[in-house]
Amino acid sequence: MTREEYGQAYQRGYDLTIRLLLSRGAPRDRAREVAQAAWTRGWERLSQLRNDSLVGTWVNTIALNVYRSVLRSEPAYQTLPELSAKAGVNLAAIDIARILKICRPRDRFLLEEQMRGVTAEEIARKQGVSETAIRIRLLRARRAARKRVERRAAQIQADYQQATSRLAAQYPANLDAAA
Predict the structure, then answer these.
(1) Which of 60, 86, 113, 124 could connect to 118 by a Cys-Cys bridge, CB 3.0–4.6 Å?
(2) Residues 21-28: contacts with CB within 8 Å, 24+ apart?
(3) Residue 24: phi, psi to the nearest 5?
(4) Could you give the CA distance from residue 142 to residue 64 in angstroms, rounded to a whole number?
(5) How far is the C-alpha of 118 from the C-alpha of 54, rounded, in Å?
């Protein structure tokens, strides 16, 4: 094949090579780069072409091999961009509300005041007690809340295990097949 014939084949086949790569999932920019590299490699190895009528197929094979090697050299993962918009649901607020809901009213009041930014000194002044007494009450309120949350978590886990064992007894074949 002469250089002129290869140039004509390039003009006819370059866009077809890009379309082939696009059909294989290559991004448009990457498909153009790989197609250019494949046609260049074909030009460099033109002496290896055995049948001039199969130049397009030959270069497309080169393009697929180049694209595969590019895919192998890239990392298999991609970092996700930071989201500019915040989620519409404030999960921390929901968790706090649930925790406060299971607290005793007196403890709930102290914890809510502290979350609003009121200092122990200001709470003590409002209630007419010492700051140390408020600090101790806050400590006890946090401990009591933690204990209630842990008990609630243990209860939920026990209920889940009980329900699972009940279902296993009711449908033993289904669970064995899933495992």
Answers:
(1) 113
(2) 21/63, 21/64, 21/67, 24/64, 24/67, 26/67
(3) -90, 5
(4) 63
(5) 81
Average pLDDT over residues 48-74: 90
Residue type at 172 in one-letter notation:
P
Q: Which 3 state secondary structure label does DSSP give 58?
A: helix
Q: What is the mean pLDDT of residues 15-27?
A: 92
Residue 86: helix, strand or coil by DSSP? coil
Q: What are phi and psi of 171, to 5 degrees?
A: -130, 65
Q: Name every residue whose Cβ is closer than 8 Å to that of residue 104 and which is 6 or more positions away in sequence.
A: 144
pTM for the model stands at 0.44
pLDDT score at 173:
63
Which helix H or strand E contains 89, and what residues bound it? none
